[in-house]
């Protein structure tokens, strides 16, 4: 089991534990379901932001010289179109925090819908 899977499982288990405690404290099930759904939405947004951070959306806009590269082009010079295209057309990478956010967010949303229906 990967680290993000353990975190997602622990987060969902913690959410169920909080829901149980809220039910013991006589909170309505509708409130518990709404809370779980909102936390799930927040985690889905977190996962989407993590995916977009790896999307190379601003490739070709900023010119930063890294160690061992050619000097940055002057403001009047053009950026290599083939390099920008190869970076932008690279496959989408979904890293571990994004997987955690998407999986745990989906689980929270399903739990929220189930609690709301009850």
TrEMBL record:
InterPro entries: DUF3899. The chain crosses the membrane at residues 7-25, 31-57, 98-117. It comes from the Bacteria. Residues 33-116 form the DUF3899 domain. This is DUF3899 domain-containing protein. It holds the Pfam family DUF3899. The keyword Transmembrane helix applies. Keywords: Membrane, Transmembrane, Transmembrane helix. The keyword NAD does not apply.
């Amino acid at each position: 089991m990967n680290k993000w899977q353990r975190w997602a499982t622990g987060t969902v288990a913690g959410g169920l534990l909080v829901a149980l405690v809220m039910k013991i404290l006589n909170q309505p099930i509708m409130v518990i379901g709404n809370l779980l759904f909102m936390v799930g939405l927040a985690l889905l947004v977190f996962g989407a932001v993590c995916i977009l951070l790896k999307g190379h959306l601003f490739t070709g806009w900023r010119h930063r010289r890294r160690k061992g590269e050619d000097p940055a082009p002057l403001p009047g010079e053009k950026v290599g179109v083939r390099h920008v295209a190869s970076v932008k057309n690279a496959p989408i990478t979904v890293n571990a925090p994004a997987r955690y956010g998407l999986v745990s967010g989906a689980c929270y949303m399903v739990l929220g819908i189930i609690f709301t229906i009850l």
